[in-house]
Amino acid sequence: MTTAVTTAVTTIYLNGQFLPLEEARISVMDRGFLFGDGVYEVIPVYSRRPFRLHEHLHRLQASLDGIRLANPHTTREWENLILRSVELAESEDLGLYLQVTRGPGPRDHAFPKQIQPTVFILPLPLTPPAREGVESGVAAITAADNRWLRCDIKATALLPNVLLRQLSVDAGCAETLLLRDGFVSEGSSSNVFVVANGLLLAPPKSNFMLPGITYDVVLELARQEGIAHEIRPISEVELRAAGEVWITSSTKEVLAVTTLDGQPVGDGRPGPLFRRMHAAYQDYKHSVMRGKGNA
Ligand code: PDD
């Protein structure tokens, strides 16, 4: 008996062409490679429907403006490229990775005059957070936020985030929560919410954090659900005394942090507001998948 082996072919988009991942080539002189001179997005796709596409494209524009790189595509062009990438993908649920770098040129820190940006779209399969993590929560550690002062730009230069995330991997934890001058900024690859005395707290958007698309969804759902919330700086003291701590991102959705630096958060289990928010998020996501929500 023979077993049929199907090798999934990932079709990517690179500079005007859809092609198998294995055939994709970029120059070693690409400034994304040499300097991390580029920006990116991760767009969740559920049942082949991009989630919050316009919000992601809007943030991409803000990131491009932040690094002074002209957008190589109109919104309509991006939509077409993204929808085609989704059509060609094996999986119905994706974390669509999209990257624009300043492109290849002579190695000089300053921008070369004549340069063509590199545009890359990679459809990655999206697996929802593990049931265990949703039901029991995850462990996190804290670390000093030693990143630059433009964390609002979704830059491909992620070395500080990579090093900070690795600290939590080394500690057997799911995320590193970052503290700057005694206040919570965000996670190494997520935003952070805290529940203090029944009140949901979210740090205000600033140059210290990425304006998360999931962060916006969670605040919209808090409004809809009548969950009392405040957008204001969260101190380290409040974080450590919190009844609940949540992390959010396009790939993690909403997760409860139930252990922080080895100490239980609240009673060490996902709290009541987390359970309400998680249910509301799933309902919203499913309405988008059925084509009823505002995707
Ligand atoms: N990261 N903050 C940081 C530093 C992030 O890297 C991310 C997401 C977020 C959450 O943003 P959003 O809700 O829009 O996903 C906040 C993505 C998923 C990544 O780099 O893979």
List its salient traits.
globular; 2 domains; alpha+beta; binds N-(5'-phosphopyridoxyl)-D-alanine; D-amino Acid Aminotransferase, Chain A, domain 2; D-amino Acid Aminotransferase, Chain A, domain 1; 295 residues; 30% helix
Enter the CATH topology name of the largest domain.
D-amino Acid Aminotransferase, Chain A, domain 2
**Large-scale geometry:** globular
Major β-sheet annotation: 9 strands, mixed
* CATH homologous superfamily designation of the largest domain: D-amino Acid Aminotransferase, subunit A, domain 2
Bound molecules: N-(5'-phosphopyridoxyl)-D-alanine
Helix content: 25-40%
Which percent range describes the beta-strand content? 25-35%
Let me know the average pLDDT. Answer: 95
Q: CATH class of the largest domain, anyone? A: Alpha Beta
Number of domains: 2
Q: How do the helices and strands follow one another from N- to C-terminus?
A: EEHEEHHEEHEHEEEEHEHEEEH
Q: Which stretches are poorly predicted, pLDDT < 50 over at least 5 residues?
A: none
Tally of helical segments: 8
Distance between the termini: 46 Å
The number of E-state strands comes to 15
Folded structure, characterized:
By secondary structure, the chain is of the alpha+beta class. It has two domains: 11-125, Aminotransferase class 4, branched-chain amino acid transferase, N-terminal domain (D-amino Acid Aminotransferase, Chain A, domain 1, 2-Layer Sandwich), CATH 3.30.470; 131-289, Alpha-Beta Barrel (D-amino Acid Aminotransferase, Chain A, domain 2), CATH 3.20.10. The chain has eight helices and 15 strands. The chain has helices at 31-35, 53-66, 75-88, 131-136, 159-170, 213-225, 236-241, 272-289; strands at 11-14, 17-20, 38-46, 49-50, 94-101, 118-125, 138-144, 175-180, 183-187, 191-196, 199-202, 229-231, 244-249, 253-260, 263-264. The strands form two sheets. Strands 7, 8, 9, 10, 11, 12, 13, 14 and 15 form a nine-stranded mixed β-sheet that branches. A six-stranded antiparallel β-sheet has the order 2-1-6-5-3-4. A hairpin with a 3-residue loop joins strand 13 (244-249) and strand 14. The chain is globular and about 55 Å long. The N and C termini lie far apart (46 Å). The chain binds N-(5'-phosphopyridoxyl)-D-alanine (PDD). The site of N-(5'-phosphopyridoxyl)-D-alanine has 15 residues, from helix 6 and strand 13.
